[in-house]
What does this fold into?
Amino acid sequence: WQTPNKALGPATDDVMDVVCLGNGGRITMTFDRPIRDGEGWDFAVFENAMNDTFLELAFVEVSTDGINFVRFDNCSLTPSPVSAFGAVEPSNLTGFAGKYKVGFGFGFDLATLAEKPEVISGLVALNNIRYVRIVDIVGDGNTNDNRSLAWRTAYGPNGPVYDPTPTSGSGGFDLEAVGVRHLAEPGFQLNRTQLNV
It folds into this structure.
């Protein structure tokens, strides 16, 4: 489970065809042809959970240059710690990779990042995403979620993220694949433009 190439190719229902990030590990997937912002979700991240509630979670970040990354908002309402083989109710989660069992990826919409400072400043271009980074969350409650303003208004300030802990062997997020729905057209070339209104 330590071979990064296992995260390449199409998503399958094979729970062994993954790269295990380990507790707190991370991986950055690179795309020669950039991901672009289109209608609805633009790419999905697949994990290998064997059922609907044994979920290992991860943050997802994107970048244009591989240096400046922006993280998708997320919210965990799991109320208390989860044992090593315990259950996480998926309806208490949003914005995390690993929310669904093997074969079902969680879709990420680049448009939801439009108001992030890195995007507004031009450091991250939503029609030129070449890097997707997945960061495992050690679900012992020492890591907080990253709630949007709407979620903070509805549920309060950022809160702890819980998923099965402690883990061993293949602990941490198990990346099966990143499936892309919206790629830039062949021959894509980024031109910087400015619009004054």
